[in-house]
């Protein structure tokens, strides 16, 4: 991947509701742009872990964190 396409390199993104749906897609896209991603979930640990696995398998960095941000 070229340097221009990794415009978020060195940044950290916290994505709430990232264990499924739109949040998961956003987390994966941010990671593809070079961001380290915090995958936030309220109840779906398995979903969050799947997103983390997808990101790390593609060469990105991510962790899952449970938190109620309401």
Strand and helix layout:
Layout: E1 12-15, H1 21-32, E2 36-41, H2 45-57, E3 62-66
Parallel strand pairs: 1-2, 2-3
Strand tally is: 3
Estimated structural class: alpha/beta
Count every helix, treating DSSP H or I runs of 4 or more residues as helices.
Answer: 2
Gap between N and C termini: 37 Å
Enumerate the spans where pLDDT stays under 50 for 5 or more consecutive residues. Answer: none
Helical residues, percent: 25-40%
Largest sheet: 3 strands, parallel
Biggest sheet, strands in spatial order?
1-2-3
Beta-strand portion reads 15-25%
In N-to-C order, the SSE pattern is EHEHE
* Molecular shape: globular
Chain-averaged pLDDT:
93
* C-alpha Rg (nearest Å): 11 Å
Protein model, in words:
By secondary structure, this protein is an alpha/beta fold. It has helices at residues 21-32, 45-57; strands at residues 12-15, 36-41, 62-66. A three-stranded parallel beta sheet has the order 1-2-3, with helices on one face. α1 runs parallel beside α2. The protein is globular and about 30 Å long. The N and C termini lie far apart (37 Å).
Short summary of the structure?
By secondary structure, the protein is of the alpha/beta class. The chain contains two helices and three strands.
């Amino acid at each position: 991947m070229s340097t221009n396409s990794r415009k978020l390199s060195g940044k950290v993104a916290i994505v709430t509701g990232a264990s499924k749906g739109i949040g998961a897609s956003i987390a994966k896209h941010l990671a593809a742009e070079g961001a380290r991603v915090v995958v936030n979930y309220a109840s779906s640990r398995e979903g969050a872990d799947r997103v983390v696995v997808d990101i790390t398998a593609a060469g990105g960095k991510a962790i899952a964190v449970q938190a109620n941000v309401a």
